[in-house]
Structure formats: structure tokens, C-alpha cells
């Protein structure tokens, strides 16, 4: 799997808990890597969007069916019900990610095309460096 980044030349700042934001990003990366086949791509990007900073994790995995996309942030929900907890997680990671992002004044969302991958994006209020 190829991992790439698309980051701006200058630093972006948010007022947030570094540990919790790291937890969110690691969860999104872990999911992307889990659902991307060998030879696929995972891309991490960050950008200023108005008064927010947006961070996205995009993969070329199997994607999420349109009728299930609105459910991915619900507790215990897993798109692949055939996976056990040992290989597919508990279904809590995205719920926790949503809670952590929203607790810091942000939003998180997903877009996907079945068979072509998914993109998970979170946005937090931009701030000025201390």
C-alpha cells in the first residue's frame, strides 16, 4: 500500500488536544489501511478551508455502500459484518473519533463510492499560533 501526503507549505494551527487529535487520525489511518488491498493507496491531506482546518484520509479500498454511509459513525456499526472483532474492530472507533472531534468544536464526515474507496474528513476551527 502506498501512503502519500498532501500538506501545505506552511503550518496549519487548530486549538485542540494533541493526544485526542492523534487518536482520531490514527483511527482513520488504521481503518483506511485495513480496508485497502495490496497495491492500493492511502492519502492524508490537510488544508485551510475558510476558518477551519480540514484533514482527510482517503483510500482506494472497497468503499462503503451508499445505504450504509450514514451509519458508519454509529456505535458498534461495522460495514463488513463477516469480520470478527479480532480482524474488524469493535465498531467503536469512528464513534469515538466523532465524539473527540465534536468535543473540540469540529465536524467529521465520510464520502465513499462502493468499489472505489472512501474519504473521511474532519474539520476543526483554525487558530493562530501561541
Give the quaternary arrangement of the chains.
single chain
Biggest beta-sheet profile: 5 strands, mixed
Fraction of residues in helix: 25-40%
Average pLDDT metric: 90
Structural category is alpha+beta
- Which spans of ≥5 residues are poorly predicted at pLDDT below 50? 81-87
Distance between the termini: 37 Å
- Biggest sheet: strands side by side, in what order? 1-2-3-5-4
Our Rg estimate from Cα atoms comes to 15 Å
What is the 3D form?
A: globular
Number of helices: 3
β-sheet strand percentage: 25-35%
Q: How would you describe this protein?
A:
25% of the residues lie in helices and 29% in strands. Helix 1 runs antiparallel to helix 3 (93-103). Strand 2 (41-49) and strand 3 (52-59) form a beta hairpin. The protein has helices spanning 18-35, 85-88, 93-103; strands spanning 2-6, 41-49, 52-59, 107-113, 117-125. The longest helix has 18 residues, at 18-35. The radius of gyration is 15 Å and the shape is globular. It has 130 residues and is α+β, with helices and mostly antiparallel strands.
